[in-house]
Design brief:
Blueprint (H helix, E strand, L loop, with lengths): L6 E4 L9 H16 L3 E4 L13 H12 L5 E2 L15 H13 L3 E4 L3 H10 L21 H9 L5 E4 L6 E6 L3 E6 L7 E4 L4 E2 L1 H11 L4 E5 L6 H11 L7 E5 L2 E2 L9 H7 L8 E2 L6 E2 L9 H9 L14 H7 L10 E2 L2 H14 L2 H14 L6 H11 L9 H5 L11 H7 L4 H13 L6 H15 L3 H13 L7 H24 L1
Helix pairs in contact: 1-10, 9-11, 12-13, 16-19, 17-19, 18-19
């Protein structure tokens, strides 16, 4: 038999912003598809019309565009297996509901919500299944004429899957191995609702995956309890030979490790759980996003890839292409992965270090301009070169680097008490005279002359340099002093020294 082309899908529901756990699921699908020379399909599962949120679909697409995760087919990408939006596939689903009904694999259920609630009140842990369905109002307990009349009268109904007891169902999972359950514990799941003429997820995803030629279903472990039902549905349709292989990914857990990661955790600890900033159309609430928080998309992808998967080496920094080559779905963890958001920050720092000074300068230049500074890109690049190893995000550069462009208007009191001695005024006055006489104001040109002067005078180098830094920067932090003064130039350096001498005395 000819080997099938690998086809995987990511199928979100447009019910709100894309959770970072969903991003990881999509990423693993992408890596798997690329690794096997296959296709990644983007499907929108919008059968739950009550939970639809305007703008969610566009948000999801924009998120993947920013992250660099590309789809081959699907909503907004085209393809031969459309439509790729489930709400546009109603007639397709009806055909397959009819097929199950005709084969005796499913049945009509006319129980009202009130009747079902009454039963739940009467029977502890009530489940609509082989043991209880003959007590309910459905096409198994009603005559054919009664059923026809109810249908003719447009009585609302659901279609339930008829699960036979006494079976063992085995789900082969690429991560977890064989998972076997007894059919007796499964309920007769609702597959279709006449109220909105739409299928439930269980039916829709089976039909869609079959018709779209999906070979592997890679999804979160919250779907593992549903997998036996899905296996039975494939068998009921006679699609067992083309049933996809399953892989259920471990959950992303709270940073503390207990419970599923939620937006509340992000709000509590100050990190995003969405790829992009989200503006809730109903409440107006704004939730932070990785993009707007200053993360590089490559850093986010790298960080997520290693949450639940281990390459088996010490390597931590991976490009997308390297991830494709290294990824192995079978090496995914069975247990949940703690969401170590601080590691995400570390990744961003590492990517800052690996990016060229020019690239970081282009990102930093608008921030400099927005602070009223008119300077060249080359000057910004020089500052970036000196300072980028000190920050985790580009936006953090300005508070650290503003002194390169703006002279200090005050001097840090703590640093003054510690670093400006009773003799600092005299030393800085002498230093100003020394610097004024230097023609070559480069780092090397200054360093040689100043160091000799310090030595000749018998001054403590620390005393001189600490006071010099305070005069030029206003605080006791920054790169090498001659790097600062060379950047500022002779005129600006002397101006700042003069002012500090006047103010600090």
């Amino acid at each position: 038999m000819q080997e099938r082309e690998v086809r995987v899908r990511f199928a979100p529901s447009p019910t709100g912003p894309l959770h970072i756990g969903g991003v990881r699921t999509a990423l693993y699908n992408y890596l798997f598809a690329r690794q096997h020379g296959g296709k990644l399909i983007f499907r929108i599962e919008d059968t739950d019309s009550h939970r639809f949120v305007p703008g969610a679909e566009e948000y999801i697409l924009e998120s993947f565009k920013w992250l660099g995760i590309k789809f081959d087919e699907g909503v907004s990408f085209g393809g031969d297996c459309g439509p790729y939006r489930q709400s546009e596939r109603r007639e397709i689903y009806k055909k397959y509901v009819r097929q199950l009904l005709d084969a005796g694999k499913a049945y009509y259920a006319f129980d009202t919500p009130e009747e079902l609630q009454k039963k739940r009140d009467e029977v502890k842990n009530f489940q609509y299944d082989a043991h209880t369905r003959m007590e309910m109002r459905n096409s198994l307990t009603l005559s054919d004429d009664e059923v026809k009349k109810l249908l003719a009268d447009d009585e609302q109904y659901t279609v339930r899957f008829k699960i036979e007891p006494g079976q063992e169902i085995t789900v082969h999972d690429l991560i977890r191995g064989d998972v076997t359950v007894k059919s007796d514990i499964l309920d007769d799941k609702v597959l279709y609702k006449s109220s909105d003429e739409l299928p439930t997820y269980h039916l829709a995803n089976i039909v869609d995956d079959h018709l779209m030629g999906i070979t592997h279903v890679i999804r979160g472990e919250e779907w593992l309890p549903s997998a036996p039902l899905h296996v039975l549905l494939y068998k009921a349709f006679g699609w067992e030979d083309t049933m996809p292989q399953f892989a259920h990914l471990p959950l992303l857990l709270k940073p503390e490790g207990k419970g599923k990661l939620s937006k509340r955790d992000g709000d509590r600890l100050g990190f995003p759980v969405f790829p992009l900033e989200w503006h809730d159309p109903k409440t107006g609430e704004v939730s932070s996003g990785y993009r707007e928080s200053g993360y590089f998309p490559e850093a986010v992808v790298n960080f997520l890839a290693l949450l639940g998967w281990n390459p088996g080496t010490d390597q931590e920094i991976f490009s997308l292409d390297e991830l494709v080559k290294a990824f192995d779905i079978e090496k995914c963890s069975k247990s949940g992965a703690k969401f170590d958001y601080k590691k995400g920050i570390w990744f961003n720092h590492e990517y800052i270090l690996r990016k060229s000074d020019d690239e970081i300068a282009r990102l930093f230049a608008p921030i400099v301009a927005n602070n009223g500074i008119d300077t060249s890109l080359d000057r910004v690049r020089q500052v970036v070169h000196m300072m980028k190893d000190r920050v985790n995000f580009v936006k953090e550069l300005w508070p650290l680097c503003s002194f390169f462009f703006i002279p200090p208007t005050s001097y840090d009191e703590k640093t003054v008490r510690k670093r400006w001695k009773e003799y600092s005024k005299q030393q800085m006055t002498e230093l100003a005279d020394v610097l004024a006489g230097i023609d070559d104001f480069s780092v090397d040109g200054q360093e040689t002359i100043v160091m000799k002067w310090v030595e000749d005078k018998g001054y403590k180098l620390g005393d001189v340099m600490n006071a010099f830094r305070l005069a030029l920067v206003g605080i006791g932090k920054g790169p090498g002093m001659f790097d600062i003064s060379a950047f500022l130039g002779k005129e600006e350096t002397l101006s700042r020294l003069k002012k500090a001498i006047e103010v600090l005395g």
